[in-house]
Predict the structure.
Amino acid sequence: MVSPVRIFFILAFVLTWVIGGIALLLGHWIPGWQPLSTSSPLYYLAAYSVSLTGIALTTRYAGRAGLRRLGQRLMPWRAKPYWYVIVIVGYAAITIVTLKTAALFQLTPIVPSRWPVFFCGLLPAILKDPGPVGEEFGWRGFALPRLLERFSPLNASLRLGLIHAAWHLPLFFIPGMPQTQVSFPIFTLGVVSIAIFDTAIYLRTGANLLLAILVHLMANVCGGLALDAHALKIFLAAEAAAAAIVVVVGGLRSVPTPGEL
């Protein structure tokens, strides 16, 4: 019998890649059809198919009780308030390191004129960017708990990060997509780093899912400040260094109690 998490990965890849492929073909077949881009409706549908798959499989394997537990993981009070501060300040620090380092090499990232204005822009960003909400009900909502049942936290993080990165692979061949700014190996480093952050937070916050969405959002928004491809590499390197610190200091040693799942 195929495991639920393997079924999830198969469906996530098939649905997203098929929807994206249809969008590309329609751009060739129908004159005037909007090409696949970050503003295309099919782009959003492809991204949201991951979360929809996670929600559907949660219902299939855990019923209404499992769906209710998934919803409870979104409750802000499930995690201590300082965890939200850690995520936001942590990514702000990574961004500052990127900006300072990029300036030394005379690169061209965007420097936020006022940090409060930048942080206020996170709410509209989560509506514009389909990644955080459109994916995390799948990657961290459905897949991560089941991987942790079979593998160590570090092993589960690496597996999920590598699979998540591979899921993005077609975007590297579509002009205009953000992923084309960097090589796939460097991009993978960033995605694996996010997986490590999310697992560490998961283990310490009762499997909080809202924080995973916030981590994804901060990674995308802060990474988007580095418009220069070289500056983006610096951002991903700083992100990877932070993830390595999390591992070294034992951030992945804890395990969740059965009640957290």
User: Anything to note?
Assistant: The longest helix spans residues 41-72. Residues 75-260 form one domain. The chain has a mean pLDDT of 88.
